[in-house]
Amino acid sequence: MPAAHLDAFLEMLTAERNAAPNTQAAYRRDLEEVGIFLAKRGKDLTGARSEDLSAYLSMLAAAGAKPSTAARRLSALRQYYRFVVGEGWRSDDPTGVLDSPRLGRPLPKLLDEDEMARLIQACVALDGAEGARLTALTELLYAAGLRVSELVALPLAAVLRDQPFLVVRGKGSKERMVPLNPSAKAALAAYLDVRSQFLPRDKKGAPIKASPWLFPSRGAAGHLTRQRFGQMLKEIAVKAGIDPARLSPHVIRHAFATHLLDHGADFRALQKMLGHADITTTQIYTHVVSGRLKDLVARHHPLANSVSSGPPDQSAGPLHRPKDDAAKD
C-alpha cells in the first residue's frame, strides 16, 4: 500500500471531517492490518481487487472475529476507496460488490440504580486523594453521561466556575452542555482540594509545572488515560460487590441514559446530553426501557395474570384482579 495514499486519506479525515486523533488512529490500524494481509498475496491496498478484500473478510470470520469487527474494517475500506477514486488513483471501488456482515443489535450492559449507589459509596469509602479522584470521576461520568475520552481529557477550566452546567467538547470538536447535580459538584470540590497531588513532579517531589487538565497524570498524555480509569473501576467493582466483567466507563454512561429514561426523560434531551449526532443511536435504549415496561406490565397490570376462557369478572369493575395477585403487590 503506498504509504502516501494512506497518509493523505488520514489527513483528509482530519481536515474535512474534523476526526479526533483516536478516530484517525483507529482507521490507520484497521487499514494497515488489511495492508499486511494483502502484502502476503502480493498486493497493496490501493490496487486490491474485490476478491482480495473478500478473502480478507473470510479470513476474519475463520479466525473467529466478531461481525462488528469485520463491519468496522469494511466501513474503513469503503471510505478509503471512496477517497482513492475521488483522487483519481484508481477508477473503480472494489468494495462495491462486498456484502456487509450481518450484525445483531446487542443491548448495552447495565447497572441498576442500587448498583450505581453501591459503586459510588465504595469510591467514597476509599481513603485519601485516590478516593477523592475516583469518586469525582465516577460521579461526573454518571451525572453527565460523558464518553470516557471526554471525561479524562476535561480541561481544568471547565469546572473552575461554580456553574450548574458542564461544557463538554465531544466528537468532531462539537460542544454541548450537560447539567451537574449537587452530588457531582460536591465530589468535584473535594477532589480539587487534593488535585495538586497528581501533578507531575521532579525528583525532589515538587510539581514540575501547572497542568491544564482536570485529571492530570505523570504519563505521556499529561492526563489520566482511559485504560487506567477502566482498571480503577474494575478494582473498585469488587469492593462494591459487582462483577468486574460487568463494569466499564461505557457501562456507567449507559446507566446514566437508561436511568434518565426510567424516570421520564425526553429522548431528544437525552440525545443532546449524550452528544449523539443521530437520534437513532439514542434509540438503542428504547429496547432496554421497553423490556422493563413489559416486565412491569406483566407483574402489575390487573389482567396480566388472569386466565379465563370467558369474559373477565365484572363484579368489581372492568379492571378487577384476583385477591391473590393483589396480595403480591
Architecture overview:
The structure is a single chain. Helix 5 (113-125) runs antiparallel to helix 6 (128-144). Helix content is 55%, strand content 3%. A hairpin with a 5-residue loop joins strand 1 and strand 2 (175-179). It has two domains: 3-87; 113-285, Intergrase catalytic core (hpI Integrase, Chain A, Orthogonal Bundle). The chain has 329 residues and is mostly helical. Strands 1-2 form a two-stranded antiparallel sheet. The termini are far apart. It has helices at residues 3-17, 21-40, 50-62, 67-87, 113-125, 128-144, 148-152, 157-160, 182-192, 226-239, 249-262, 267-274, 279-282, 284-300, 323-328, and strands at 165-169, 175-179. It is globular, with a radius of gyration of 25 Å. Mean pLDDT is 82; it is low at 307-329. It contains 15 helices and two strands. Residues 303-329 are annotated as: Disordered. Forms a cyclic heterotetrameric complex composed of two molecules of XerC and two molecules of XerD. Its main location: cytoplasm.
Secondary structure elements and pairings:
Layout: H1 3-17, H2 21-40, H3 50-62, H4 67-87, H5 113-125, H6 128-144, H7 148-152, H8 157-160, E1 165-169, E2 175-179, H9 182-192, H10 226-239, H11 249-262, H12 267-274, H13 279-282, H14 284-300, H15 323-328
Helix pairs in contact: 1-2, 2-4, 5-6, 6-9, 6-11
Active site: 147, 171, 250, 253, 276, 285 (o-(3'-phospho-dna)-tyrosine intermediate)
Main location: cytoplasm
Domain Core-binding (CB): 1-85
